[in-house]
Amino acid sequence: QVQLAESGGGLVQEGDSLRLSCVASRRTYSFPVIGWFRQAPGKEREFVATIRWSGGSTNYSDSVKGRFTISRDNAKNTVYLQMNSLKPGDTAVYYCAANLVGGTWASQYHYWGQGTQVTVSS
C-alpha cells in the first residue's frame, strides 16, 4: 500500500511557473511508476506525465511537452512536476497516482492523492 500527497498548487498569471510535489509514503517495487493527471470542471481526467522510480524514464502528453518537466528524488520518495510557461488552459486540479506499469489512462492507476488546484489567469 502507498499513500500520496500533492502540494504546490496556487493562483498564477499566464507565463508564470509552479512546481508541484507528490510525496509517497513509500517507494515500492509493486508500484514502480508515478503519474501526474489533471482534471478541469466538466472534463475527463487527462494524462500529463509519468516517471519511473528506477532509471527515471519519463513520458509526457503532447499538450505539456517542452513546458513541463517531471522528476523524482528517490531519497525523499517525492516526485515533482515543474510547470513553466503556464497557460489558462492548464487550469485544473492536479493529481499524482501510482501504477504497476506505465500508462496514460487514469483507470490504470491504483492509488491517488487528493489533488492540488492550479489556476492560471490571463
Topology at a glance:
Blueprint: E1 4-7, E2 10-13, E3 18-24, E4 33-39, E5 46-52, E6 58-60, E7 68-73, E8 78-83, E9 92-99, E10 111-112, E11 116-121
Parallel strand pairs: 2-11
Antiparallel strand pairs: 1-3, 3-8, 4-5, 4-9, 5-6, 7-8, 9-10, 9-11
Summarize the structure.
The protein is mostly beta strands.
What does this structure look like?
The chain is built from no helices and 11 strands. The protein has 122 residues and is mainly β. The strands form 2 sheets. Strands 2, 4, 5, 6, 9, 10 and 11 form a 7-stranded mixed β-sheet that branches. The protein has strands spanning 4-7, 10-13, 18-24, 33-39, 46-52, 58-60, 68-73, 78-83, 92-99, 111-112, 116-121. The radius of gyration is 13 Å and the shape is globular. The relative contact order is 0.32. The protein is 0% helix and 49% strand. The N and C termini lie far apart (40 Å). The mean pLDDT is 94.
> How many alpha or pi helices?
0
Shape: globular
Task: Summarize the amount of helix as a percent range.
Answer: under 10%
Q: What is the tally of beta strands?
A: 11
Mean pLDDT: 94
User: Any idea what the radius of gyration is?
Assistant: 13 Å
Q: N-to-C terminal Cα separation, in Å? A: 40 Å
Structural class: mainly beta
> Which percent band covers the strand fraction?
over 45%
Please give the largest β-sheet: 7 strands, mixed
Low-confidence stretches: none
In N-to-C order, the SSE pattern is EEEEEEEEEEE
Describe this protein with a few key phrases.
seven-stranded mixed sheet, four-stranded antiparallel sheet, about 120 residues, mainly beta
